[in-house]
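User: What would this chain look like folded?
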Amino acid sequence: QGARKGEFTTGVPLQAGQRFSFVRATGAGQATHHVRCLPADFPEWTYEKFAPAQQQWYIVVLGQYVIVIDGNGVPVWWFDDPGSPADAKFLENGTFAWVTDRGTPMARYEMRIPNGSLVREMKTVGTMTDGHDLQLLANGNYLLMSYKQRATTVDLTPYGGPNSANVLDAEVQEVTPGGAEVWSWNSAGYVGLEETGHWFDDFVLANPTQFGPGYDIVHINSAEVTSDNSLLISMRHTDGVFNIDRTTKEINWKLGGTPTPESLTVIGDPFGANPFGGQHDARMNPDGTLTVFDNGETRNRPPRAVRYEIDESAGTATYMESVNESAAPGAFCCGSARRSDAGSWVVSWGGGATGGHPVSEFAADGTRTFRITFEIGFTYRAHPVPFGELGAATLRNGMDAQHPR
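Assistant: Here's the prediction, encoded as structure tokens.
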């Protein structure tokens, strides 16, 4: 209709997922607004804004929904996946990726374009795919992970377990888009049983089949190939982050956990030489620093997002900064910490035994910009998308294709 002034109402019939737009005259010209109908079972959330958001989009998974949220806390795109999705992200090739049917033999990562069309499915070779992480490599291949049962049993009596136990090792595979394995690394022979340490008593021995038919002695939860072609992994049940030579498969260095010859000397961290408690989401940044979501589990302290300067030649990891969230008093599991090139942080504060925790962002000066709290619990990981990488029109058009009027 033509423009009108004053106060009035207009009914617009929409089905879930459908959109309409309207234009509003302003002193500076015109502003276009987009309204989309949420599904009746869409998870509820609370958004608190304190300062301008530092990224354009934030990808989370809540229940069965993969969701893209803008800097005002508004869901702009979503996908309904009944297969218990997790670990959603936006890849450099223009696809969304997340794991579905996790914890089952059908577990796989799906890559979908914004209109919802399935482009590719990726799985590990010869073992069940784990849903903690996937990375798209520069050569077009994918990095995936698995918990793999060791071929021989292990004597766990020195650690309070049985003398003939099945154990699960961490396996990382590089797999081509066509599904062929071209490289792999397995923790057996490189990470000793003694490096599980207190986690035997705190979790492992009481949960012999959580991720498969065996004791989860290392629990890998993130993996990436760094700019120098090494492999960086986080293993929760060692309290350690490991850097691995992709050619020799030997460990270059280790940060945290039980001391080994490869351990870095920690400098300046207020929590000392063994700083992590069941950490997640270890990432090397373009400036060469390392960021980690430190859950603080079993350490009687809240989680934090923490950053270190790594000097491999000197064998040191120097503490640089950390951020905390008052609404996250503890995090038994999960969580992520992503620092932008400009110094801002996006943190998913995990959850688990202590309940749900928010996703929050902090500007480079430490100012909190927003906090999102979810009524149904928490999200495993929050993936930020910088300005300019994914257009709003692309998301809207993709949703319109999924839910045409």
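The chain is about 5% helix and 40% strand. If you want, I can go into more detail on any region.
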